[in-house]
Amino acid sequence: MSRFFANGSDSESESSEEEVQASNFNKATNFQFSDDEEEVKRVVRSTKEKRYENLTSIIKTIRNHKKIKDIPNTLSSFEDLTRAYTKALPVISKEENGITPRFYIRCLAELEDFINEVWEDREGRKNLSKNNAKSLGTLRQKVRKYIKDFEEDLARFREAPDQESDVEEGEGEAHESDADRAGADSDDGVGAGAGKLAELPKAAKSVTTKAVADDDDSDDSIDWDSDTESETESSEDENLYQNMRERFLKRTTEKEDKDDDKRKDKRKEQKHKVRKRAEDDEDGEWETVVKGNVVEKPKMFEKDAEIDIPLVLAKLIEIMSARGKKRTDRRLQIDLLFELRDIAEQHDLGTPISVKIHFNIISAIFDYNQKISEPMKLEHWALLLEVMQSMMKLLLANPDIIMNESVAEEHEEYVTAPYYIRGCPLAAVERLDDEFTKLLKECDPHSNDYVSRLKDEINVVKTIELVVQYFERCGNNNERCRIYLRKIEHLYYKFDPEVLKRKRGELPATGSAPSSVEVMDKLCKFIYAKDDTDRIRTRAILAHIYHHAMHDNWFQARDLVLMSHLQDNIDAADPSTRILYNRMMANLGLCAFRQENIKDAHHCLVDLMVTGKPKELLAQGLLPQRQHERSAEQEKIEKQRQMPFHMHINLELLECVYLVSAMLLEIPYIAAHEFDARRRMISKTFYQQLRSSERQSLVGPPESMREHVVAAAKAMRCGNWQACANFIVNKKMNTKVWDLFYESERVREMLVKFIKEESLRTYLFTYSNVYTSISIPSLAQMYELPLPKVHSIISKMIINEELMASLDDPSETVVMHRSEPSRLQALAMQFVDKVTNLVDVNEKVFDMKQGNFFQRGNMGNRDRGYNRNQNNQGGNWGGQRRDNRNQRNRNQRGHHKQQQQQQQQQVQTIEEE
Amino acid sequence: MANRGGRHARNEDSENTINYVQCDGLAVMKMIKHCHEESSNMDLAQGALLGLVVDKCLEITNCFPFPKSGDETMDEEMYQLTVMRRLRRVNVDHLHVGWYQSSDVGNSLSLALLESQYHYQTSIEESVVVVYDTQKSSRGFLCLKAYRLTPQAIQMYKDGDFTPEAFRTLKVGYESLFAEIPIVIKNSPLTNIMMSELNELLPEDKGHNFLDLGTASVLENHMRSLIERVDELYQEAVRYNKYQQVVFKQDTEKHRALAKLAAENAVRTSKGEPTVSEEEVIKQFRPLPVPARLTATITSGQINTHAQHIAQFCSQSLAKLFITESLQNAKETKEIK
Prior knowledge:
heterodimer; A: mainly alpha; Arc Repressor Mutant, subunit A; three-stranded antiparallel β-sheet; two-stranded parallel sheet; 42 helices; disordered C terminus; B: alpha/beta; 2 domains; eight-stranded mixed β-sheet; 15% strand; disordered N terminus; Eukaryotic translation initiation factor 3 subunit H (chain B)
């Protein structure tokens, strides 16, 4: 706006041409006239100039239209104007600080007047053409509606009557030029524009003279804008100040070039100028740095205030009421609370208050971190732990303090003996525990960081222990169950070697501290008895089983699993419980393996391993998904479920145990059922490994754990137990897998024993058909097994009808019965099965036909039946033919069977030969 | 069966373009060599037969192998033509009279074989396919079979219609898809002379090799593939059975609809209204797609050949058994004496 005025002043002071051109904003002036002077070189225009030019030109046309009462055109121009104004709005708000340009307001006022005038003039209105009258109505409505937004500005405009005359004058000028409108239209426009521009500074001048008295700042303002600003936007917005100053600045620089004699207060101008000049260069980006919101730390209490319980409480409530608000400085809040605690302690206000403040500090620390998924800062964590422990100590030391979430705010009691405090240490400790897990998950598990974090686990456990003590003193069953579960969850995955020692009688069974198994037993039994939410009980059972399995209490663990029927309804549980279930199963499998229950071990592990992603099932890491990407949301959730590293179960150990037990089961089975058509594989995963190694054209010495197992399986297939045992138990496998077991030596011995036995079985299955009899001692020698063991294995096989043989005691030999079919015979048997199947189906096909036939007979309408048959069957074998065929088929079948028998006889005879 | 026999007689003129195949020793040796060298589990060895037709007898005098299919830079047709042209220059029969293929325990009769033979036979009237069984031959049983498609089979394949209906009208069965043509191996007198001379050079006790009975693996292999084929056929039968059931269901529905229509029509005629024709109702039931029977037929054919092979093998073995028995007896009596 100010620039606009400056332009005006330029055009006015046309006499001093050189000066104008020299001035730094003559480009604007030039531009004003560039429309008709093409030779003037192009200048870059600012958006402001462009918009304003647009606006003024439209205003001009409106004025022209009004003169000749061309209402439809006035309407369309008005619409253009509003549109142009909305376009210019951003510029205006930037440059003019949101104040509507004066010329615009003027135009609106004139338009309104014009409309009112025309509207009032009923006579004239009647004479208007239909088109005009219609447009007038619309225009009036539109203007009225539009003007509402500018009511204030308009009112202010109308308050300045002194401008009216100027306008009149300008208009008169324009009118003159209008008269010879037939001439160059552009010239006319320019003339009018010039006239109008010219009038403005005059107005400004008059305004200035009026406003001089106001104050120092506003005396050089051209309009009342600054006044209104100070009125309406008196709120101290720095930004505003800045803008205003900016405006000032511009104005002053522009004013430099104004005619000096017109200025009465030039002296002041100069001062401004000098001051602002320096800053002129950085005009655009001139900004004050907003200083940090340094709020003075509010004084806790008045110096001389008597500090007593209600006062401290009030303060506490005051601090806490800011909680959760956006502006609240959370760090400050924590500091304040600490200060408050110190004050309370200084003045000896008693433990209840102290406890209350402690509790509030805890929640404030929890509040500090706004994102739930991210762990808290380390210093806060340390603080939190400390505060939590001291609070619990206070609570435990003062049995007359009752802290409970069921206590209502208004029933809190701090003064007399049974103190009541509202608050829930249980929730706090649960949150604390969760935060700890988050912290752990944040660390790289292989760094020292993790170890140092993990050291806090002891403190967490101690804190939980404190809370347990508290709730054992005063807590209902539900709360006790919850806190017990927390304790269990910190206990169940930890191995206590003392338990095993005690079991073996190396340590006295009683006395000293209870072992972890006993503690676990106690906690879990309480939960079993008292818990009424299913979830806690389920988790307790799972943890209990896990713990038992860990300490080789195979039978207790197994019985618990079987009694709880968890397998049936675990699918309905929440993910974290299912993860716990998977972990439990994995550990149970390992336990079964250690306890020489190979079959059970396999059963436990098969569900986990068959999917091929035990890592995910045990929540020990995310696998990249091929089919569909996880959304960020889902990934976050899944990450939250992950187990911290120190609780992981070694996957390689798990897989190895699974594969080895699968091998011990599968290889003898394969050998026993070589020709069985209905043979099913026991373990798919193991089979796949075996297959893939068989497919390789060149098999090198085994490298990985899997290759070792596969190589061992191959050795076992031909009964070579020595090679098999070497593949399973060697240095490489020891470091990789077996050493991970507690008492690994025992496990290895067990393994070798099993390998011997199963190899012996495999050997008997595979090679029994080449023996007529085998001596047991030589077998025992071969497999380095004691005689009775071999004897028992063979007897078992005979009893299970796996081996067709009998034992000859005096000679200590196994005599083969040789009743198993030879390979060809087995094939022939299989073939017979297949052929019977085929014949059955064929029979069915003919039964269908037969059925049709009877139906057709019943229908009585032979012709149609015939047609239908032909249509649908596509092949109508006549009755006779069918019979033939039937018979032939039978013959064929007979033939097949004959052939079969023939073959078998033949084969036998050949073999006999 | 009698019917079919009669038809055979009728078609004799067209069918008896060739009565037997006479194969030169050279060609046989070349084929065997090629098949043993190049056939594996995965791919088959194939080649072209060259010869002449003389009086209902196809004389195969020479052959050459086709290049392995893996090489794409080679134009197979060009290759064949060049080979034949060059053979012609050295005065060898250059008429293309068929092709040969290696096979594994009688797994020869397949859809692919049927297709190729169809193309051969439609372009060269008297062409045959000779199938050489590598596995069985390596066990001591020379297995060389010549096959031709029967005219019905050609007709059927030309129509491309494999519904039971088409099978019925063309009277094609599994036994009448392929016609086996006897093969005679003929050597030149000079070769025969050399053979008999070699025979005399052979020491006397080495001549019992033909009595070898340790060939159970042949039987096993046959059984295995037989089992496979039977399985396939079983699948086909199940499929057909399902189809039948669906058709039956549709039939009953249609019948019900027709009955309903008849009742309605009766009412209408009593009222004097025009009746609705049955076709409207029949239109609602679209005929179901009939399962193709070609694979089933081919599988049956294979089973048939397998059975034949087994029977042949067994009878041979039995014969051997008896021969050895009598030989043994003779030996024993000799020793006693």
